[in-house]
Design brief:
With about 300 residues, this protein is mainly beta. It has five helices and 26 strands.
């Protein structure tokens, strides 16, 4: 048994000549075109490698992972006159670089394929916002005090125009937080999109979390923009403002901090006789608010 293992190791350690096939992926900053492209056909070359390497090579064929990546100077690429967006260069230019790319595991004797062809479409770029995908819960009496901050909050996406034109945002991986009581922050990876290059691979997120108190005050409703000679009666004439504010505030919010109104011009057009109650502005430190009732009856007296 030991002799068989020794024999096997010796056989696999020996060098063998073989015909190799590798797809070639190039990165080349051609102005106005996609940055990366994979060859239509593989580069084929004769070379020598150990039996161990040949075993790995044949196994990778089944997984379709035989790809060699090179950075190519744009001046090397020549346009194919009879085909739009197709460029080519001679495979011989890769002879010395292939062995280096394979960490010297293969000695290249001869490049068999003459020319490699690449489809490199024109590119289109635009700026889109980053959206954080999140699943967050907060401890009782705690909530977000501000909107989540992202850095960067937008990225540039590049690709074929037909693809990029239909994208209005990019998303992060989902971040999860449970029973939060303090600022929640970290780094989230931006999810790659097929056929699209994204200028950033991740974003830093930060969400300020704090304790709140919930209170309610009754506020008079103002009638606004009522023409001279007319009158608008609102029933009821007050609403209850139920709101949250940050815990520990030096001066708690009161009814005088809210300006609530019904607009005459809008209310007069209501066929149902109902008018929407609105707020003129949101006081500083207000975290959340609801008005009860959100609609009131209006009676217009000419």
């Amino acid at each position: 048994m030991v002799a068989l293992v020794v024999w096997g190791v010796m056989k696999l350690s020996a060098s063998y000549r073989y015909l190799f096939h590798y797809q070639v992926e190039i990165t080349s900053p051609l102005e106005g075109r996609m940055l990366k492209s994979v060859s239509k056909d593989p580069v084929t070359f004769r070379g020598a490698a150990s039996g161990f390497y040949l075993l790995r090579y044949k196994y990778s064929l089944h997984k379709r992972s035989n790809i060699l990546s090179f950075r190519v100077n744009p001046s090397v690429l020549k346009p194919l006159p009879e085909a739009e967006d197709v460029f080519f260069f001679h495979s011989s230019a890769l002879k010395d670089r292939i062995s280096e790319k394979l960490d010297g595991s293969v000695s290249v004797d001869e490049i068999v394929s003459d020319t490699l062809f690449f489809t490199i479409p024109k590119s289109f770029q635009k700026k889109v916002p980053v959206c954080l995908r999140s699943d967050l819960t907060f401890s009782p009496q705690y909530m977000p005090l501000e909107r989540v901050a992202l850095m960067p909050d937008s990225v540039f996406i590049t690709g074929e125009e037909r693809v990029v034109a239909g994208i209005d945002s990019v998303f992060t991986e989902k971040v999860i937080g449970r029973n939060l009581t303090r600022t929640f922050q970290g780094v989230a990876e931006i999810v790659p999109m097929p056929g699209v290059e994204i200028s950033e691979s991740e974003t830093v997120y930060s969400l300020k979390v704090g304790r709140y108190v919930e209170r309610a005050v009754d506020v008079d409703i103002q009638a606004r923009n009522v023409p001279e000679g007319s009158r608008m009666v609102l029933v009821p004439s007050t609403v209850k403002a139920v709101f949250r504010e940050e815990y520990g505030r030096k001066k708690p919010l009161g009814k005088d901090d809210f300006i609530i109104y019904v607009d005459y011009e809008e209310a007069s057009l209501s066929e149902s006789g109902k008018a929407k109650v609105k707020m003129d502005w949101l006081p500083e430190g207000l975290l959340k608010i609801s008005l009860d009732p959100p609609f009131v009856d209006r009676i217009i007296v000419e």
